[in-house]
Design goal:
The chain is of the alpha+beta class. It has two domains: 78 residues, K homology (KH) domain (GMP Synthetase, Chain A, domain 3, 2-Layer Sandwich), CATH 3.30.300.20; 73 residues, Ribosomal Protein S8, Chain: A, domain 1, CATH 3.30.1370.50. It is 44% helix and 25% strand. The protein has four helices and six strands. It has a three-stranded mixed β-sheet with strand order 1-2-3. Strands 4-6-5 form a three-stranded antiparallel β-sheet. β5 and β6 form a beta hairpin. α3 packs across α4. The chain is elongated, with a radius of gyration of 18 Å. The two termini are 34 Å apart.
């Protein structure tokens, strides 16, 4: 990611926050699979009300605006480490359900989830070659099914 793109993303988020009347500090850092935009400051808590709906909306807007220019992975927007904690919880739940699917042979469900959350689940499940995952549904929020692979069947055989 170029320094110019990073600066424009920070400036954009600062402008949105200012328009909302929120005073927060915005930083942008590269992460393994994309970019993390972090908001800090007590007023950022307003974004976290209603299970982080404001934060989800902001992330959706930022991704929509910069998707064509930001070609290296995804853009995650976090405020007061809320998303980092929720992402970790979701990842742990996906790993637990994957283990349960592998042990019992029964398909496990998690959701409904937005695209960002589904991505976290699919990446976590992909770490275990004995299980696979798929999204079902035809709306923005979809359910992820986690199933045991047939014995002797690996990722390349799907």
């Amino acid at each position: 990611m170029t320094a110019d793109l990073e600066t424009r993303m920070v400036t954009f988020v600062e402008a949105v926050m200012s328009a909302m009347g929120l005073s927060v500090t915005v930083t942008c850092t590269p992460i393994e699979d994309g970019t993390r935009i972090t908001l800090d400051g007590d007023e950022g808590e307003r974004l976290l009300r209603r299970k982080g709906a404001g934060l989800d909306a902001l992330q959706h807007i930022v991704n929509a605006v910069f998707r064509s220019e930001h070609t290296k992975g995804h853009i995650a927007v976090d405020c007061l480490d809320y998303r980092k904690g929720k992402d970790n919880e979701l990842r742990q739940m996906a790993l637990l359900l994957a283990q349960r699917a592998a042990t019992t042979g029964e398909t496990q469900e998690i959701g409904p989830l937005n695209p960002y959350a589904r991505r976290i689940v699919h990446l976590a499940v992909a770490e275990d070659p004995t299980v696979s995952s798929e999204s079902i549904g035809d709306a923005f929020l979809k359910t992820v099914l986690i199933s045991a692979n047939e014995p002797g069947r690996g990722l390349a055989d799907r």
